[in-house]
């Protein structure tokens, strides 16, 4: 059955990393001195430690491991059962039965194995680009390195958005908060102080600092988890759930057949070897090749998407793209380049020169730099002061502050969103008009204010009932702030954003822009991105306090959301999912992580934070929006290919099950083990692999997937089983050999020519039918249209034609007949089988076109095939 792929809410039973570290350390923790000097290790010492086995072995998660690929392609449950049955046949003296039966299974598996390994090699090469980097201090200098270059004792630097790549202990830094949800499943931020442990797999949300690597390689937390299982219960796509249902249903049918075989063996005293051979035939009903075909389709889709600029980190996200009906995207760094520049400053309580000087010193004094502070420092320069207290910027607060007491820079200074600061201003006359003027053009606006006095920036909170100071007291804006000026910042849209959003709109996908910026700024950018008059705006302040019902309706009705917090982003995505939408979320920053984890498909920008890339199912290489339409079409291609493959497999499963039951009821046995191997190769294995390669993008027909599948499969299978049983019976009765036998699994000499010849005729008829099924699934002309819309694709029909000659080469050669246990038929017998297959094709097409099954069941509500969207594809 299909392995799950991701669930960002539930976790496997893994050790809680916080069990080793008290989340509420004492106010003055006893911090052990670092064994690493403040200048870090020397390169020579790092080399010696690496040679001593103290380097950091990194486990890549870009794709499945070779061990997983081998196990799932060759040593899966059903194959293991068939291998066991093959071993029993060898022990019982049926060497060639075992070799041919197992050999075809191995051949099918090896074809898929080779394709998937090739895909993995290509994907792993590309995935190297998106691996998290680490900032290490070596010989007193900071430099960025691959995590694989780290060694035990390295001194590392962390900033907001960085991922912790090895376990260690924090040795300096303030106001750091880490998200450990990838390890624990809990989304609450964890405050980190000097002396606290940091765990690999977590990432920094606010603040920063330095830490010393204490556990590397397999000893680190993330590698311990990766060695056993991913930290998340994986989520299935709708198609994967349906495929699992089909496989489990087939397995139940097989188990029921096995019970009947055992009962028959006891009553008729069948030989053990015959029971094993019959069991081999029944277990071949389970479509193990279906799982291999899905894995191959995902791998091929991932390779094609990588070629267009999208790296797939979770295999099933390729197919998930076809289910998306809502696309949520952040603004800054996602729709825009995040190339922030100062546009203009407007002094309010001082002159321009003083305002620019104060902004320069404020940005230079911040312990944690971001894009905004970097833009201010680039524009105004300034030397760093030594703050008494600092509140670093966070997406939840939307402001940062410094309390300083230096020459020429004394007081409490705050920079942030005007809406969050208005209630704390001493006066706000004339502010709103100017802010409105700038935000309406898409500019980002910040307010800079101060108090002349040095004010405390943190409330003195206490742990309830203890009187002791809380671990991380909440930050608080001082009252009576005096506005110094406002700053407008400009950004620019990424290339091809307009074209991308337009293509999604044409595909019926709703686009929702969610940002922490001013709603009017976001709306202006949305207009530039091409949303035009379709904009419906709501702010995070309006969303606050809404009931779940009202919040969900707001998420549905609006498409631009401004001044929202990270928690509100997550709530918006969750509300859309609860309303039945399949949601993709695009983000680049650490503030997008919780909403990315909540989405059905998480998409990150390569240039974004390590945290966003770490939780993403897909990464847009080179930050190119142009890859998104390709990813969507590739999802359609994979879904369409899997739908075609499912039809082949289910027709074969249903038909074989009906034939085994029907022929057993009249005293015969439908197949020899080698015959089922031949049937599996020509009727499912090879066509499935090639259909995955031939698939084309395009929308699916309307209506429920399982309903459409049933309308296709049931008429085809019932008529094929009816004609097959008739052929078997006629050929068996036409022979002078006894028809009913107590040894159905024996050789030709043991069962008699009647059953042996009838089994061969049945196998030939079924192969002919399954070859004709290919152009019925992918109709190249209107003649073949009945169960599927017109595709105008001749490749599957050509494949069917070539496979016919391949099968006839096997059936007519002495080696082929001996290999696959086929009787020698006269040419008239092949003509009869061909005529019966053509009768099946015409009869099935008639049943489809007239909707006989729908009318019989009273569900004739499907639209005509000519109205299906894919008919024009």
Would you write up a description of this structure?
By secondary structure, the protein is of the alpha/beta class. It folds into four domains: 146 residues, Calcium-transporting ATPase, cytoplasmic transduction domain A (Distorted Sandwich); 158 residues, 3-Layer(aba) Sandwich (Rossmann fold); 150 residues, Calcium-transporting ATPase, cytoplasmic domain N (3-Layer(aba) Sandwich); 173 residues, no CATH class. It is 48% helix and 14% strand. The protein has 31 helices and 21 strands. An eight-stranded mixed beta sheet has the order 8-21-20-19-9-16-18-17, sandwiched between helices. A hairpin with a 7-residue loop joins strand 11 and strand 12. Helix 3 packs antiparallel against helix 4, helix 4 packs parallel to helix 9 and helix 19 crosses helix 20. The chain starts with 42 loop residues before the first helix and ends in a 16-residue tail after the last helix. The N terminus and C terminus are likely disordered.
